Amino acid sequence: MTPTRTCIGCRRTDSPDRMVRLVADGGRVVPGAGLPGRGAWIHPDPDCLTAADRRRAWGRALRVPGVPDTSVVRSTLDAPL
Q: 28-67 burial, b for 16+ CB within 10 Å, e for fewer?
């Protein structure tokens, strides 16, 4: 059985190799496949990024207070893969 993860944007489950793992680093969110700490998963899709913002999912998923800075994630996911 292959593992599945839930996207914090669209809430659909998918294989981890089709998603990006995110972690909180101080007050910002960064892609971190190998970084320690609580992680959240998102599809590399601008619609999922927008949905995560709209749902205010970042703080809940990563268990950080307030609204963390997602500019690093945005610039990484907006770049061609």
A: ebbbbeeeeeebbbbbbeeebbebbeeeebbeebbebeee
CB-hemisphere CA count at 13 Å for 68? 23
Per the domain annotation, does 51 fall within a domain? yes
SS3 for 21? strand
pTM: 0.87
pLDDT by residue (tens digit) across 10-33? 999 999 999 999 999 888 999 988
**CATH code of 62's domain:** 3.30.1230.10
- DSSP, collapsed to helix, strand or coil, labels residue 7 as strand
Split into its structural domains, the chain has a count of 1
Enclosing domain of residue 34:
5-76
Paired residues of 29 in beta bridges: 24
